[in-house]
Hints:
The chain has helices at about 5-20, 25-45, 55-90, 95-105, 125-150, 155.
Amino acid sequence: MAIPAALQQAAIDRYVTALTEAAADAPAVWDRYQSARRAMEAAFVALGTTDSNRWIAAVSKLIATHDETLLAAASWDAHAEQIAAVHAKHLDARIATGQAYDAAGIHATDWLIAPFDAYDFAHETPLLTKAKQAVREQRDHVRKVAFLTDPHGWRAQT
């Protein structure tokens, strides 16, 4: 059944307005995550060329970047949930999310916005899940290097 053009446009207008409001702070929050993730990757890469006498400080810096990345990912997921809720609520507009972003003047091509039901904060949320996996991989690598090199003989003392 066809929807009258005026009703269709009204639904689109409500969708775009709600999306604009929900995404108002999103660019800054996404940029914070991207910046934290880049810093984490840079700190991890830097470990490969860090002198052994600076290793502990470099690992400490890496751990700090892990913490910041996880906080930024959780913050993004909270914003993304609000945006996903708007998408879920305005299905009556019958336009693709990309069209809604375009109509709102929002450049969201890189954003991770999962379907609304993916944001169950009792469990893992989408970006936080990805960030935790990256942190786990880096920490596993650091543990392997520390175990295999054992510069202070800590294994022998325990």
